[in-house]
Amino acid sequence: MDRDTPSSVPLPGWLTVVGSLAIGFHLTALLVLILAAPSGPWPTPMGADMALAPWFASKLNDFFLPYYLKPLKFTHNYHFVTNRTSTTGVYFTARLRDGNGEVFLTLEVPDANANRWVRHRQSLLARGLGDDQPVPPMMGESVAAPNQQVNKVKIWDLMEGKQRELILREVPEHLVPRDRPVMKTSDWTELLVRSYVRYLARKYQAESVEVVRHSQEPIPPAALIGDFPAMAFDELISHFGPVSASGK
């Protein structure tokens, strides 16, 4: 005996409407996240800069991001870092030392011989080491409290006899030079250096690791029509100094 078996059971109309609204809400949240991302860098009279997102997208994203997208871990705005010519080129070397202070191994990051996936992660690490921050000059003198020392800050300073080599020096805040721009490492950079040093020391049984950053500024289009110092685009070498296996 033949039986008429229905191929599909139609959904109730209200369920179809609710499902369509839920899908529309989700896609709208993702679209707003994409529109709310800064764009650029764009050329401006003051140099390359990022453009802010549209006002309406930022306001909508203030609702979607914390209350809906973050719990779902949908926080990437689909703006990928590609071949941005305005980004400073950075790589670094790690000099591993034994208990006698002798260098027994030197590594270069990113490693040209690593596979593309490892090299990409190493490139992100190297780029994180280039996030220097300006040191605002003090508008007065710093006086330590009784039985206390004045606050100190680590700044990049020129090495003696070198024009394109820097070294980290810890100086009191009131002795930070005020006649020139002064830079320091960011907290994120220091965290990356300490973490990578601990990893290398554990892997290669090193007592300390010295990280040396090599960076080069991008060549702006104005260099084709303007006069720039010959050394303006030379490699800048920055010495973080030896860091013990404990990351200190």
How would you explain this protein's 3D organization?
By secondary structure, this protein is α+β, with helices and mostly antiparallel strands. It folds into two domains: 15-72, no CATH class; 89-137 and 150-244, no CATH class. The protein has four helices and ten strands. It has helices at residues 13-35, 55-72, 116-128, 187-204, and strands spanning 39-42, 49-51, 89-97, 103-109, 132-134, 152-158, 165-172, 183-185, 208-216, 236-244. A six-stranded mixed beta sheet has the order 4-3-9-10-7-6. A two-stranded antiparallel sheet has the order 1-2. α1 packs across α2 (55-72). The radius of gyration is 26 Å and the shape is extended. The model has no long low-confidence stretch (mean pLDDT 84).
The rough form would be described as: extended
- The averaged pLDDT comes out at 84
Classification by helices and strands: alpha+beta
The total tally of domains equals: 2
| Major beta sheet summary | 6 strands, mixed
Low-confidence stretches: none
- Terminal Cα span: 84 Å
Strand order of the largest sheet: 4-3-9-10-7-6
Structure, briefly:
The chain contains four helices and ten strands; from the N terminus they run αββαββαββββαββ. It has 248 residues and is of the alpha+beta class. The mean pLDDT is 84.
